[in-house]
Design brief:
Elements (H helix, E strand, L loop, with lengths): L5 H17 L6 H10 L3 H15 L3 H4 L3
Helix pairs in contact: 1-2, 2-3
Length: 66
Amino acid sequence: RARRDSAVEGPAALTTLRALAARDVLADPWSWAMLARLETDPTVSAQHLARCQSLAGANARNVCTR
């Protein structure tokens, strides 16, 4: 949703991703990276980015960007 139009879809995507993260069901590092980008709290965003990096492993540099 956020990739289509982040200004319009971003808040809805953030709500959805937060709910999935709370249940620990985000399956891939790209989802964690998107959540880190959309997150409004810098501390929480950094936590999501760290989760992305742990899942992406050697590919973290290419996947986990803000």
